[in-house]
Amino acid sequence: MCRFLVYKGKDEILLSRLILEPAHSILTQSYDSRLRLDTRRPHNGDGFGVGYYTPPALGPTPCIFTSTIPAWNCTNLARLASKTASQLVFAHVRATTEGALSDSNCHPFAHGSLMFMHNGGIGAWRHIKRRLAGSVADRWFLGVQGSTDSEWAFALFLDRLQRLGVDPSREGAGGFGHAVLRRAMLDAIEAINVFIRELPEGVKRETDTRSLLNFAVTDGESVVCSRYVGSKTDEAASLYFSSGTSWMKGEKEGEFLMERRDRGADIVLVASEPLTFERDNWVTVPTNSTLTIHKQTVMIHPILDEFYNPSPSYLRSAQYAKDKGLVSNAPGAAQAGTPNTDGDDPVASAPQKVEIDAVRAKLDRVQLKVAASSL
Question: What pLDDT was estimated at residue 100?
């Protein structure tokens, strides 16, 4: 499994303060992944990528740097990170599950102003690949350059975004809107589930059909991430977030702390693994939910499908995540509050709103603002 990191802040941050300097930075995770229990594949050393947005004068498209060199051994990464700053950063270290070792298979992927990355894998991939590829419009089919299930998931996302009446190639201020990005992500996840559900029973008996779909997408304005597993009994791959007013460097080397001087959320970090060992700084994103960052506000919504369980006390098995080299939650990490089941999504479908209303009777409505979260 891979690892990824998202930074969104009101102010620019030097990339080195995210990907190089913290004690458990994503660079460190490339060779010392504390949540990787699979000793057969102890490293995330099959390449890396960093994507970030530049000042508006340089245009809305992100700058992306990828390499097949392990992140810990790339001198150019250290040189660039120490002199590059941005308000929105994606970083990814790769452990190959599908696709060869090549630059075209390194995340994040981009189209126009959009960036996308993935941690996990699509269930029964070899059996549904042809159907998935055939379901997307020619422009997205022809745009796939590599051989990973992750890039095909991005093509599927772009296709679903277009079906919502949005041109993914459009460039301009304001982005596409966080609700539209979330709807396209949910539609892509549902499409994957449909492809798997419609496999012959014999194939499903002999193949692992569970998907681990931790996606992250941004249009340069809003960020939407998912923590998802195609199972009602298993945990998803780990995902955490942290927020506050400043990302403070401590006195000791590698020591960082998310400082909160007020109820604001000037900085939001989302990561497969916490960047520090200050566990009270990090909140676990609930399994089978999306996390949205819009105007420095964090919102969590449940993904209401056949794999969702509305009971807050329901316990999932972590064994599947362990078998894939992951554990479900880091020891001591706080749990996020009840997902937001607010149906005020302008692109939510009518059936989804009915489900939302049903869940409301069982769950407390909470819109997770960073300062109000139970940290």
Answer: 56
DSSP string, 129-189: HHHHHHHS-HHHHTT--S--HHHHHHHHHHHHHHHTT--TT---TT-S-HHHHHHHHHHHH
The 10 Å Cβ neighbour count of residue 145 is: 12
The predicted structure's pLDDT at residue 180: 97
CB distance 123 to 199 below 8 Å: no
What's the confidence (pLDDT) of residue 312?
A: 73
| Selection from 184, 180, 177 nearest residue 154 by Cα | 184
Mean pLDDT for the stretch of residues 209-220: 97
Characterize the bridge pairing of strands 109-111 and 212-218. unpaired
Pick the catalytic residue: 2, 74, 106, 225?
A: 2
Q: To which residue do tokens 């492809």 refer?
A: 195
Task: Please tell me the distance from the alpha carbon of residue 326 to that of residue 329, in angstroms, as a whole number.
Answer: 9
Which of residues 1 and 162 earns the better pLDDT score?
162
Residue 45 predicted with pLDDT over 50:
no
Is 74 assigned a catalytic role? no
DSSP helix/strand/coil, 349: coil
Which among 304, 285, 88 is positioned nearest to 183, based on CA atoms?
A: 304
List, in sequence order, every residue forming a beta bridge with 6; answer none if it has no partner: 90, 270
For residues 338 and 373, give the distance between their C-alpha atoms in angstroms, rounded to a whole number: 10
